[in-house]
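Q: Could you fold this chain for me?
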Amino acid sequence: MRWNALLPALLLACFAAPMLGGCALQPVYAGGGSGAVAQGLSAVEIAPIPGQSGWLMRDALQQRMGTDGGGSRYRLDVVLDDQLTGLGLLGDDTIGRERRTLRARYRLVDLSSGETLLDATDGADAGIDVVSSEYATIAAEQTALENLTRDVADSIVTRISTTLRQQMQAPVEDQ
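A: Sure. Below is the predicted structure, expressed as structure tokens.
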């Protein structure tokens, strides 16, 4: 009885596996830390970003890209917009909920040619409950900023990785 239920899934897997080889999917980080994309990421100089959110973002980006500060080939310029909006007005005219929004506008510039390789925007937002303890609310706002920074940094690094991979494959495709 159990084999009868598994048979269609097994047959589908056997027929689908050979077709996956022809889909031309390739890992972005092929070659690991010594691969072309990983080395391209480590060659990105991250320009200073003002403010606390800027410090958090720059640190998160440096950790994810493994930038060493030497031999920069690219520059990443980031402008952040960090907004905290009060929502959910309670009966006593106090705010019961807040929304923290972090948006990043960024450009990846090739330092040798001055060409902008990527000009994009990414963002994330989080809801925060406002409680009677002001300390707890401030701590929640700070935690939200840290979490949003990590989310946006992940998105930025993913888009830069894709751009660098395309950039590195472009000369091969032209031949």
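A (continued): The CA atoms of residues 9 and 15 lie 10 Å apart.
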